[in-house]
């Protein structure tokens, strides 16, 4: 726009035709004008089963007024913010286009503190939308499932591998960010479907409703009979694809041999006999050579189903697995939304946020190291410190805000402590 203005000015200096000059200046002014529209959107907090059409009744226990809403146009690289007002409606002035509507915040109720995060992708805004329009059009409503703030979370994930094409060093750190002891016994660690972020999302049967479940490709389970593996506040455990000193195989890699568990799938030629195997209790298509998650970025969650005996036989029962709509007969673990304690979506790059594959109540955003085999990891941002020096991490259920990118992975970053029962104490 600035170029148009300067060109007009130069022409004016040398033109003898005043009307031509005036006309060009008017055109320049018009080029600077941006057509704005004002749109409204409804933000509901819903609990219980949400039907397939998404038209659930809001739960008055969880008020959305005051939550921040971001309207993001990825194609244009622009964003606009506003705040939810009365009647759970947010209004915002923005330029026409296709948007992702992202909501974030937290509320405190008699049941505890809950995150209210969610997102709607590919929402077209082409004209003004009034609050009255919203009331009669569910297309402009986002229903958010409250997620209780938990204590355990992913604090670091190293997934992309290192050049040249070395990926057996993938490593995951789970940390107690809360105030109470957490027992790992029976906790489940799942890789979610789809394997890679995509705009071609799977369709699930109508009886599952909308965002009542996430679906696992692989589910691992921490061993223990109940209270064998306490994780105190400030302590972390490390889970590896393969727990060895990987610099022996690739000098650019690192040593994760002190991991508490490794996800060894049965390859007799690999694995660390001194590191306990974490058993898998569900696998969509078992690979006896390795558990390799996508170096482009997968999605993960940790969960616990307290009222069920979660083992291999559990996932064989009808109702605990699901297949996508279509010809495929592949089964996926059906994980209830209320069982999810934390989740992270890893993307091919941050420009792929419009390709999110998991619901906003698991992770309203995403994080990425941007490319493959660069040896980088993602970890949570530190926002405080306990009296013993252990970190307090940011956890808003939005990985875009909560995570940072590191040049290399670190075992128990930021002064995280080792559990007393860990084998790492002897190494």
Characterise the protein shown here:
The structure is a single chain. By secondary structure, this protein is mainly beta. It folds into 3 domains: 2-29, no CATH class; 37-147, Immunoglobulin-like, CATH 2.60.40; 150-426, no CATH class. The protein has 4 helices and 27 strands. The protein has helices spanning 2-14, 18-32, 131-135, 399-402, and strands spanning 37-45, 68-73, 78-83, 89-94, 97-104, 106-109, 112-115, 118-125, 141-144, 147-148, 152-158, 171-176, 182-183, 188-192, 213-221, 230-231, 236-240, 261-262, 280-283, 299-303, 321-322, 332-336, 340-345, 377-380, 382-385, 391-393, 403-406. The strands form 7 sheets. Strands 14, 15, 19, 20, 21, 22 and 23 form a 7-stranded antiparallel beta sheet that branches. The chain has a 6-stranded mixed beta sheet with strand order 18-17-12-11-24-27. The longest helix is centred in the N-terminal third of the chain and has 15 residues, at 18-32. Residues 1-18 have low confidence and may be disordered.
């Amino acid at each position: 726009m600035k170029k148009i203005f300067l060109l007009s000015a130069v022409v004016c200096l040398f033109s003898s035709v005043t009307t031509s000059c005036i006309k060009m200046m008017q055109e320049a002014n018009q080029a600077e004008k941006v057509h704005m529209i004002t749109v409204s959107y409804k933000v509901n907090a819903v609990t219980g089963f949400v039907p397939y059409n998404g038209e659930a009744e809001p739960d008055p226990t969880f008020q959305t007024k005051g939550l921040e809403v971001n309207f993001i146009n990825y194609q244009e690289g622009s964003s606009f913010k506003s705040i939810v007002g009365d009647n759970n409606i947010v209004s915002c002035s923005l330029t026409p286009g296709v948007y992702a509507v992202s909501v974030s915040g937290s509320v405190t109720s008699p049941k505890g503190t809950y995150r209210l995060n969610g997102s709607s992708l590919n929402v077209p805004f082409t004209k003004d939308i009034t609050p009255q329009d919203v009331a009669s059009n569910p297309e402009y409503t986002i229903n958010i499932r409250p997620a209780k703030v938990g204590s355990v979370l992913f604090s670091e994930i190293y997934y992309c591998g290192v050049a040249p094409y070395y990926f057996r060093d993938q490593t995951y750190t789970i940390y107690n960010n809360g105030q109470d002891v957490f027992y790992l016994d029976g906790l489940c660690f799942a890789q979610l479907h789809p394997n890679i972020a995509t705009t071609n999302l799977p369709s699930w049967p109508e009886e599952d409703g909308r965002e009542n479940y996430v679906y696992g490709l692989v589910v691992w389970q921490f061993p223990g009979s109940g209270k064998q593996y306490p994780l105190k506040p400030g302590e972390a455990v490390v889970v590896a694809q393969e727990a060895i000193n990987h610099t022996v195989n690739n000098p650019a890699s690192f040593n994760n041999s002190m991991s508490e568990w490794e996800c060894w799938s049965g390859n007799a030629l690999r694995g660390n006999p001194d590191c306990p195997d974490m058993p898998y209790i569900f696998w969509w298509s078992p690979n006896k050579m390795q558990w390799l998650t996508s170096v482009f970025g997968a999605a993960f969650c940790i969960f616990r189903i307290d009222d069920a005996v979660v083992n291999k036989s559990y996932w064989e029962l009808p109702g605990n697995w699901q297949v996508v709509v279509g010809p495929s007969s592949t089964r996926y673990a059906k994980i209830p939304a209320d069982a999810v304690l934390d989740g992270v979506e890893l993307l091919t790059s941050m420009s792929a946020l419009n390709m999110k594959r998991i619901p906003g109540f698991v992770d309203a955003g995403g994080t990425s190291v941007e490319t493959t085999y660069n040896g980088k990891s993602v970890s949570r941002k530190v926002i405080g410190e306990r009296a013993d020096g252990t970190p307090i991490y940011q956890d808003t259920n939005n990985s875009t805000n909560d995570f940072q990118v590191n040049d290399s992975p670190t075992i128990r970053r930021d002064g995280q402590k080792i559990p007393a029962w860990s084998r790492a104490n002897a190494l």
